[in-house]
Each structure stands twice: as structure tokens, then as C-alpha cells.
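This part of the workshop introduces the protein records we will be handling. A record pairs a protein's sequence with a compact description of its fold. As an example, a complete record with its sequence and its C-alpha cells follows.

_____
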Amino acid sequence: MFVTGASGWIGSHAVGELLSADHEVVGLARTDAAAAALQARGAAVLRGDLDDLDALRRGASGADAVVHLANKHDWANPAESNRAERTAVDTLTDALAGTDRPFLFASGLAALPSGRPLTETDASPFSGPDAPRGGAENLALDKGVRAIAARFAPTVHGTGDHGFVAQLVATARRTGVAGYLGDGLTAWSAVHVDDAARLIRIGLERAPAGTRLHAVAEEAVPSREIAEAIGRSLNLPVRPVEAEHFGFLGQFFGTDMIASSEITRTTFDWKPTGPTLTEDIEAGAYAHA
């Protein structure tokens, strides 16, 4: 299997899950450190990055499945991130055209329906190169290959995570306050990284073309509960703050990003078993932040 983002947060756990299930893995590595980490785990290495389209073609053409988890995540230049994502998805799916080899790719929970969680039957409203993530979900699902969208919760948590929750913890440390916005009732879905990695393997092995997998263990964790767990873990006061307290993250922490995974669980017998988000926070999973 060819994996982009193989040395990243979700990718490194996915590689471990795939190797433990006796799959051979080739990981895309941008740096010497990433290559060494992959080799140490028993994976093969293909050097390159998302802009190296020849490397993407070689990796996809020589693999029996492709897992695309890499993303530039350039918050200062989202247009570039969107362009790179769309181009990479276009290149990888072209390499798989005419085959039944699975293409599982990372997507997210966005443009939620009003008044209810997003479900697997809800199509993404984003299309075209100027859309978030370059409209890559609809692009991939329309390419005529065995494309599988893995929609990850906004926090894929665990020890070593450097994502949104790590930034919330770092902000609390810096300011001396574990904050939340408004009444603290906006909520995020959450999933432990090991459960997400297991779902990636299940999707590759079993999901048909056009599947939307929801890597969601907890449907809605209120932002105030997240702040309270951070406060307990750092022994800091918890109180409402303004969005500017969080910098760019304020626009996300004050937004509902929630989804159901009922169809994913029922269809693929996926049963999350990892700790909850607040359990992870209070157990010290973000002590590094």
C-alpha cells in the first residue's frame, strides 16, 4: 500500500495498523527524518512530497491500494493548500484509473446541516479548485475509481497530537486561562487516533467505491467541557473569553463541527475503544503542548 502523510500524526498510526495486519507499506517521505522513521517501523520509503507529481504517480501505480493523508495545512495561504490537495488527488486517482484498487483519502467535517449532525449520506457541498480542500472529496468520488472518503473528526486525539487541542492547551499555558467562547455549548466531534487508524484499515479492506466513512467516536464534546478538562490538567481557571484569545483557532473553537458515525459503525462493525477526548487531556496526553 502507498501512503502519503505516512510520517504524520494520523499517518504514522495508520502505517502501524497496516503493518500489524501484514500489509506491505510504502510511505511517501519528504525528509530524511521521516524516511528513517518509516524504515524503523518496517515500511519502505518513496522520497517526495505533494508537489512531486511523478513520485505520486509512481507510488500509486505500483501499489495495490493508496491512502492519501498528506496535506499542506498552510493556514497563511489556504489557496495553496487547496491547490496542492486537488492536484494530488487528481494525480493519484488518474494513476488508479481502470482498476479496482482502493483510494482512501482524508476529508473533513464541513458545512454542517442546520440543526443536526452531519451523516455519511450528506454529500460535500464543496466543488471546484477554489473550494475548501480544493473540492477534493467530490473530485475523487466522481473520478470512477474505488474512492473512499475518510471524514475525520476535528480532533483526532492522543498522546503526541499537535493539532487543535494541543494548540488550545498551549494557549491556556501561555495565558493562564482555560477559555471557551460564549456559553461553551458549541461542540466538536472527537476520535482517538488508534480508532481512526483501525477504521482506515477496515475501509481499505472492505469499503466499496463511493463510501463516506466517519471517523467519529464522540459525536459532540461541548467546548466548555474541553476547556474544563484543560483547566483541570493544568490547574488553571476556566472562564469565557473572546475569540481573539485563541488567535486563528477562535473561528473553529466557536463553531459546531459534529457528525454521526452510526452508518460507519453498523456497516463496517467499527467499535471505537480508545479513551475519550477529556480522558486523554486529563491523563496528560497533551503535556508536550
Q: What stands out?
A: Residues 2-154+192-216 form a domain with the Rossmann fold fold (CATH 3.40.50.720). The two ends are 32 Å apart (CA to CA). The chain has a mean pLDDT of 95. The first strand starts at residue 2 and ends at 4.
